[in-house]
Design a protein that fits this description.
Length: 137
Amino acid sequence: MTSFERPMPVKTPTTAPFWDALAEHRIVIQYSPSSGEYVFYPRVRAPRTLADDLEWREISGMGTLYSYTVARRPVSPHFADAVPQILAIVQWDEGPRFSTELVNVDPAELKVGMRVRPVFCDHPEHNVTMLRYEPAS
């Protein structure tokens, strides 16, 4: 059987503050004063207003499970050893939604609307920290 190395995110000048904060086990996302809203994914202009006013602010990372699916077949050969994989969308308390993976939970215990908290998964061999989620209780 062929083994595939998992793809890892590539840090860019626009996304570097997000990834650098995760390496410190903190979460920072952008905030737009012109729209009065937090913004995610990282970008160079504020959505809707197109203002050049985005600033990085730390958030708690706490949120609510907005949606999820349990992938019982690998989503690609790179994840053959990771099934079942619980793919999820978490809505942060600050507003934006974040695509992630749930860990440390039995799929039978999941419920849309449940509170979740961040889990920082360090991958020193790739110099990256991934943000995952688990039930808050």
